[in-house]
Amino acid sequence: MARTIVPIGPQHPLLKEPIAFQIVVEGEQVTDSTMRMGYVHRGIERLCQERTYIQNLYLLERVCGICSHVHAVTYCRGVESLLGLEVPLRATYLRALLCELERIHSHLLWLGMLARNIGLDTIFMYAWRDREIVLDIMEALSGGRVSHAINTIGGVRQDITPMQREVIWGQLDKLDQQVSRLLRVVEHERSLQARTRGVGHLSLEQVRRYCVVGPIARASGLDVDLRRDEPRPPYDRLNFDVVTHTAGDVWARTLVRMQETLVSVQLCREILRTMPDGPIAVSARRRVPPGEAISRSEAPRGELFYYIRSDGSDRPARVKIRTPTLPSLLSLQIQLKAITIADISVILSGVDLCIACADR
Amino acid sequence: MSGIPNRDAINTLVLRLLSNLTAGPGAFTHTTTDGELVIQLPAHALRPAVSCLIDEIGILHLTTITGEDLPPHIALRYHFWHHYGFTLEIELPRDRPVVASLVDLVPGVALYEREVHDMLGVLFEGHPDLRPLLLPDEWQGPPPLRKEDTHG
Amino acid sequence: MHYPNKKSEAVMEPRRQIRVALQRLLRPVIRWARRNSPWILHFNSGGCNGCDIEILATLTPRYDVERLGILKEASPRHADILLCTGPVTLQSRDRLRRTYAQMPEPKWVVAVGTCSCTGGVFTGAPTVVGSVAEVLPVDMFIPGCPCRPEAIIDGLIQLLGHVE
User: Fold this and answer.
1) From the CA of C70, how many Å to the nearest CA of chain B?
2) Higher-pLDDT residue of A96, B147
3) How many CB atoms neighbour CB A241 within 10 A?
4) Total count of domains within chain A
5) Do C61 and A68 touch (CB under 8 A)?
């Protein structure tokens, strides 16, 4: 049978960010694939060395637009660790509130993209309409729908007023209703199940050997969630479930992400209810004493890792970022084999790629 | 959370497993500001250390490899995770940065070694595919994370 | 050699006059169609994805640009307006030029977001070329980090106001 190469990307309707796949196809069967990244490489790690710690905060928020807040939080935690600062508890609650809201918005975004790439445009419209509720809440808290700039080294810059709290509580009720409805639709929609069941299977051993993280790992049975496993305030005081599944296919990933969204809505409520009073920031010195700090967070796509080394000046000597999309891209090399062409869009959507995160 | 060991227990375990490798010259131990263990080893001891850890612990989770240009060396830090994080650090000579690849022991290291090769010019012997990962096709200059050579 | 298309001047002149008259008659119709049904192609040349999701948000029920006739197209050959987001990276530059070349005339380029207008926070990075204006002729700049969907719609409507 003749070998054809189907190029997907860098500009393709399936992808909202540029990445190039060359998929080797014989007839309808995919036999191999190669990947070329780097279209979004902006050299952020090198730029960080030329800017001060506070300037880097605004740069690192723009590594990715979908998970910008968790990048800023992880960076701030690393720098605060180097400075030996203890961030006020109220600030950690506010940061966590936005982290959970970001998780909800990212998963709803992903559901819309998966549905659109499969051809179920209605679910895309519903998911993104419900996502607007989350963006409204985030705008009320920080002033920005997507980019928040609410973090500073030492805490957060804006507090939440009692009136905002009441309004957000009402919005969370509405969101809970809408997300539950979406979850019911997803669970019962037979065309979605037919396209995603059994597709892109990753076993638990493959997930562990390829160091895959996030909902993809949890959908294959790996019980890892950094909010629970590396507990920092406020997560050490909050009760939540870690959602896992055993099927390991795109269907399991869909269920994991949707159920995680519901868990996040409950977490937002608990954060609002138990938020302590107090200051929202402590002041931070400009020059950071020498040392190394490692901070990890559970971003919507998995383990986000920051390594910051300071040499005593007001600029970092080295900032290393490992985003969760990188192991997902590695797992694609396993998944894009022995499938049909029709499954390519399902698999590429199922891994929830954030190429801006991966390329930095 | 019952059943999950605390950080000191993990640090002790790792140090014990690597005790014969950390006893030799060129091996140092320190911690990050949060108490994460950083074990500095000679470059030839990296593969034995990782094999030893895998034999005892099982499949290892590698988060990433941080490379840093610190003339006259290039430092490579391998960040692992087993209930808590710990780091193995090696130093390579800057003019000939060659080290054995870990891709057969930890398949998840594939993209990280490619990235360090791209950004710092380190050669990983045994890696099947060291094509550029992030740099554009037309990149002509030195690896971007290398500091500019100062005169003298 | 007999050239079938080469006819005498006596035959060509009335045909040319008919064609010119038809064009003059249809020009308002063509302008109405272009203004009321601009199809967009979205190209991310190296951005953080913030502006991209706001562009996608304009398609969703709250903002709903389809009521203005705007559809997001998959192929450059079907698109009228190229929406560029993100600073142009070295690796994306040629692909951006090629995509622009594949679009049929008349075409317009809109730079969405601060990075696309000026390079944004990534100015000076060695793998970043800069704003889209350094690579393509830009007709409309819509700043914002990220650009709000209302601003995108406003920018597109102002662009359509200049469409001939």
Assistant:
1) 34
2) A96
3) 13
4) 1
5) no
> Would you place residue B2 in the very low, low, confident or very high pLDDT band (cuts 50, 70, 90)?
very low
Confidence check: pLDDT of B1 > 70? no
**B23, pLDDT greater than 70:** no
Domain-embedded: residue B50 = yes
Residues of chain B above pLDDT 90, percent? 17
Residue of chain A nearest C86, judged by CA positions: A40
Q: Is residue A132 part of a domain?
A: yes
Domains of chain C, each with CATH number or no CATH: 38-161 (3.40.50.12280)
A275-279 long-range CB contacts below 8 Å, 24 or more apart?
A275/A90, A275/A93, A275/A94, A275/A97, A275/A160, A276/A89, A276/A90, A276/A93, A277/A90, A278/A88, A278/A89, A278/A90, A279/A88, A279/A90, A279/A91, A279/A155
Domain count within chain B: 1
Which residue is closest to B87 within chain A, CA to CA?
A: A294
**Minimum Cα–Cα distance from C115: chain A residue:** A62
Residue ranges of chain C whose CB lies within 8 Å of a chain B CB: 89-91, 126-127
Residue B141 forms contact with C (CB below 8 Å): yes
- Residue ranges of chain C with per-residue pLDDT less than 50: none
Contact B68 A318 (CB under 8 A): yes
Asked if B64's CB is within 8 angstroms of A41's CB, the reply is: no
Compute the distance between CA of residue A162 and CA of residue A196 in angstroms, rounded to an integer: 44
Nearest to A147 by CA among B134, C83, C47: C47
Using a CB-CB distance cutoff of 8 angstroms, which residues of chain A are in contact with residue C97?
none
